[in-house]
Design brief:
Layout: H1 2-16, H2 31-80
Helix pairs in contact: 1-2
Length: 85
């Protein structure tokens, strides 16, 4: 999961640097509105990607903690049953 999180972080950095000026939508009657809608959509996607990176990091941390707890429990159980002599 760490690798995927790193890749998503790189994608998030790359996407955050993308912006379009209002002139990118030409001289259409609603060009200003189109630019505003595009900007809102792009901002929402940036936030969603950042939230996904955060969720991946938290999931990876939780899985690591769970694996460590299982290993510790197994070790304690083994010692309690005399298996660590």
């Amino acid at each position: 999961m760490g690798e995927q999180s790193g890749q998503l972080s790189q994608a998030s950095s790359a996407v955050s640097g993308i912006s379009l000026s209002g002139s990118a939508f030409g001289h259409l009657p609603n060009a200003g509105h189109l630019h505003q809608m595009y900007s809102e959509h792009a901002d929402a996607n940036r936030k969603n990607l950042a939230d996904l990176v955060d969720a991946m990091n938290q999931t990876a941390s939780g899985l690591t903690s769970t694996a460590q707890n299982y290993a510790q429990h197994d070790q304690q159980l083994s010692e309690g049953l005399g298996g660590a002599r």
